[in-house]
Amino acid sequence: MEDIRSYLKEHTLLFDGGMGTYYGERNNTAADACEWANLTNPKEVEAIHRAYLEAGCRAIKTNTYAVNRLRMPEGDCRALIRSACEIARRAAGDEAFVFAAIGPIEVQDNRDRLVEYCFVVDQFLELGIQHFLFETHSSDQYLHEITAHIKMRAPEAFVILSFNAQPDGFTTEGRLVRDLCRDAAADPNVDAVGMNCMTTARHMVDLVRKIGPLAIPLSVMPNASYPTVRGNRSIYDGNPAYYASQMAVLRDEGARIFGGCCGTTPAYIAATAEALRAPAHLRIELPDVQEERPPRTQADPFWDTLCDPDRKAVAVELDPPEGADLSKFMDGARELQSKDIDIITIADCPVARVRVDSSLVACKLRRELGMNALPHMTCRDRNLNATQALLLGLCAEGIGNVLVVTGDPIPSASRDEVKSVYNFNSRRLIRYIKGLNETILPTPLHIFGALNVNARNFRIQLDIAKTKEENGAVGFLTQPVLSPQAVENLKLARETLDGRILGGIIPVVSQRNALFMNSEIAGIRVDDEIIRRYEGADRARGEELAVEISTEYARQIAPYVDGFYLMTPFGRTGLIARILDSFRQEGLI
User: Fold this and answer.
1) Distance (Å, rounded) from C-alpha 450 to C-alpha 461?
2) N or C: where does the chain have the smaller number of CB atoms within 10 Å of the terminal CB?
3) CB 99 within 8 A of CB 131
């Protein structure tokens, strides 16, 4: 075979289509079973390769997308990769390039993930494979390291990084595909970059235009169409001729490498091959100008106060009710409003117990009382689409701030099961919202994160907080400060972090309350001396102590914070009002 770099200088390169979906269609089986066919039905795998080659492709992918040790035993991995390479090479002969297809490896421990990628890559290298396609990835985490590993072992290897992207330009991990492609193009170990899966050819045209010109070849491998579900199977009802017409547009937009993903049969590849043989239309090169975001037009008094060095902002958390009656909540909000607080924060189903939606309550406060509200947003129960829809709604309602937290898992009877819809953790969600700020949201949101000053290894929490800042967080709300160690940790946070900090204060109302928080509420640590002070205290004395201790700790943390974040215990807004009066008497606010 001709050297692939020389080939690309003179030609476009056409890959095959969606092996998994086509195998499932031909054999009336689930697409995720196709890799095992390398051992159980190798003739069928070879027949599919040949069908795509006869359709006109000049590059085929090994049938190994989901082969890794997280899915199957090591011995099976080795056998499946070896058989897949033999089958693909036999089918391709000297007429087509063979690419190792490597899909995302999903593991929780990121350090293990790099080891697993290296294992898979090394199997291909030992078999003499020199071309690699990392497809359907939602971030570039470890991809740059693994491409460097490949080039260290095989300097002449050709590596393509291909990311998934929805029509709005975000991957399933909330990364902008534009940024991923541009970063990859700047990596000397990456030879081509592009997109596959998630979108159709027409929407991929829009994405390519947003990416702009790149210094390396651009690869595009769309789905045949958007899927429909019939009988528990995903069906793709696209039109090969229309698909091919859009691939020609992608060629005119600068793409050099083509192919198909889910639902693309040999008919799609044949139509694309024909369309690419037609003369290219003249492409007008446009300067790579970043889209300018309109300036923030909505006033945000809370943020202004938080940035004022001569003032301390006051945020008060008020939990929404478990039922649909919001009258008591609204009465409490009015009482707090009379104390001139800057914002009310609203938890999102704390401790995974269902309450009225925090974002809807925030909008109600904004509309009916004209109050600033900061809804908490967990990663627990919304996928990427639902998250974006909710954020658009918040912007439409004039909400300018959001607190992003991962959220507590919902308990399940199954010990290994968590009934949740996690597309993100808090760091990824922060990065996703930052991307929406840059591209979609008409009024960018101020993104806040949580900071646990009670963590035993607080340095780890600081590292996480720094990542949140890098991803777009502009400030932090801390867990309650109720111990000397928490004060020291907050001081360290002030020295380490760039964002605004609101120091957490929760009034302890009784000894029983203190013991409960220490034992059953994650992230709270009440000092033993505080617990002793409540011995024998009745309710009235308990509230007096709550005011005293809250004021004492507010005084201690004042030099290290830009504001105070008070958490209302048991809906006692009157107690919070007393504490705020004490803060004012002390000159803290």
Assistant:
1) 10
2) N
3) yes
Residues facing 566 on adjacent strands = 316, 505
Angle between helices 143-153 and 110-126 (to 10 degrees): 30
Q: How confident is the model at residue 288 (pLDDT cuts 50, 70, 90)?
A: very low
**d(Cα 440, Cα 275) in Å, to the nearest integer?**
34
Q: How many Å apart are CA 176 and CA 85, to the nearest integer? A: 33
Segment among 64-68, 234-238, 377-381, 495-499 with least mean pLDDT: 234-238
Do the strands 97-102 and 563-567 form a parallel or antiparallel pair, or are they unpaired? unpaired
Cα distance between residue 44 and residue 462, in whole Å: 53
Whole-angstrom CA distances from 8 to 61, 191, 196, 257, 531 are 17, 11, 19, 8, 73
Helices (H) and strands (E) in the chain, counts: 22, 18
Strands 257-258 and 218-223: parallel
CB neighbours of residue 195 within 10 Å: 30
What's the pLDDT tens digit per position in 147-186?
999 999 999 999 999 999 999 999 988 899 999 999 999 9
Give CA separation, 235 vs 88, 141, 223, 383, 416, in Å.
26, 31, 11, 22, 31
**8 Å CB contact between 336 and 304:** no
Q: Which residues pair with 161 in a beta bridge?
A: 134, 193
Supply 238's token pair.
């696209």
pTM: 0.80
Residue 469: closest CA among 430, 441, 418: 430
Between the CA of residue 219 and those of 234, 251, 408, what are the distances in Å? 25, 10, 40
Dihedral (C-alpha) 228, 234, 240, 245: value to the nearest 10 degrees?
Answer: 70
> Rounded to an integer, what distance in angstroms lies between the CA atom of residue 256 and that of residue 266?
20
Closest CA to 346 of 331, 334, 329: 329
Average pLDDT rounded to a whole number, residues 267-272: 97
CA separation for the pair 31, 63 (Å, rounded): 11
Enter the DSSP assignment of 226: -
Interatomic CA distance for residues 559 and 157, integer angstroms:
56
Task: Give the CA radius of gyration of the chain.
Answer: 28
Q: Give CA–CA dist 11/256, Å, rounded.
A: 8
Total count of residues recorded for the chain: 589
- pLDDT tens, position by position, 312-356: 999 999 999 889 999 999 999 999 999 999 999 999 877 667 889
Residue 471 has pLDDT above 50, yes or no: yes
Tokens of 171: 């991957």
User: Which pair of structure tokens corresponds to residue 200?
Assistant: 């159709």
Are 81 and 64 contacting, i.e. CB atoms less than 8 angstroms apart? yes
What pLDDT score was predicted for residue 173? Answer: 85
Mean pLDDT of all residues belonging to the chain: 91
Domains and CATH numbers, the chain: 4-277 (3.20.20.330), 311-584 (3.20.20.220)
Q: What is the pLDDT of residues 72-100, one digit of tens each?
A: 999 999 999 999 999 999 999 999 999 99
For 520, other C-beta atoms within 10 Å of its C-beta total: 9
The b-or-e profile of 262-293 (16+ CB within 10 A means b, else e) is: bbbbbbbbbbbbebbeeeeeeeeeeeeeeeee
- Residue 479 belongs to what H/E stretch? strand 475-480
User: Which residues have CB under 8 Å from 334's CB, separation 6+?
Assistant: 369
